[in-house]
Design goal:
The chain is α/β, with parallel strands linked by helices. The protein has helices spanning 24-28, 41-54, 65-69, 85-93, 106-119, 131-138, 168-177, 191-203, 225-232, and strands spanning 75-79, 98-102, 124-127, 144-150, 178-188, 207-209, 238-244. Strands 3-2-1-4-5-7-6 form a seven-stranded mixed beta sheet, with helices on both faces.
Length: 245
């Protein structure tokens, strides 16, 4: 594949006025809190050159995977890819799979487009839109081979826990879109959130734990710069991997 030449996990934040509100998922069924950020010149150039090829417009109608990717292949949904470091690594490692990636943070979208150009990745498509809308209106039941949710905002304070993404209604949506044998992989560096993830996923009857608790880190998930910094500071990281029954 020949791509145009290009130049060269951010977490969500809320304004003070939003701090005590429920997670957007439970207010308006959204999966994110919009964050401010600066798009670099290289990211803006990647938007202009590669956006038309790799960014899918949100449309409230079933997604044609073959048309979107130019092929039929097992498709993995990634929710909230930050700056795209892990996404690009995994897509390069697994060229036989399609990766449909949702992120509303514009600098992150630009950063992943830049990586696509630099690494000549043809198996990624980006939907710069709320993942819940994408799941509800673009993804048919049973169409996904996997779902990745890496390091979502942990909302550390107890009164903010209701804002966390991994809640039973959202997990049911994900499980419904997975084909039998597909997988849901969540990762976090905040132990109370890991405990919640394990509890919520364990209660979903369409899912089955692949481990007796937390899973070993799958080989495909890289240690990002963010994660390495945390590990050096003594922070733990927990992976939770469940299969669709």
């Amino acid at each position: 594949m020949t791509l145009p030449a290009t130049d060269p996990p951010a977490r969500e934040s809320a304004s003070p006025a939003d701090e005590d509100a429920p997670h957007p998922l439970h207010r308006r069924l959204k999966s994110f809190v919009k964050r401010a950020g600066r798009t670099t010149e290289g990211q803006a150039r990647a938007f202009a050159e590669l956006g038309p090829l790799f960014v899918l417009p949100y449309r409230p109608e079933p997604l044609d995977i073959a048309a979107a990717f130019g092929r039929n292949a097992p498709t993995v949904l990634e929710i909230g890819f930050g700056m795209g470091e892990a996404t690009a690594h995994i897509a390069a490692l697994q060229p036989e799979k399609n990766f449909l990636c949702c992120e509303v943070h514009e600098p992150g979208v630009g950063a992943l487009l830049k990586r696509i150009g630099e690494q000549q990745l043809g198996n990624i498509r980006i939907c710069a839109h709320d993942a819940v809308d994408v799941i509800d209106h673009m993804l048919a039941p049973g169409m996904l081979a996997g779902v990745h949710v890496f390091f979502p905002d942990p909302w550390h304070k107890t009164r903010h826990n209701k804002r966390r993404l991994i809640q039973p209604p959202f997990v049911r949506k994900l499980a419904d879109r997975l084909a039998p044998g597909g997988y849901l992989h969540c990762a976090t560096d905040w132990q109370p959130y890991a405990e919640q993830m394990l509890e919520v996923l364990s209660q979903e009857p369409l899912l089955r734990n692949t481990a007796a608790g937390y899973a070993p880190k799958p080989d495909y998930r890289p240690l990002t710069k963010f994660e390495n910094r945390g590990l050096k500071l003594g922070h733990g990281v927990w992976d939770v991997v469940f299969d669709r029954v």
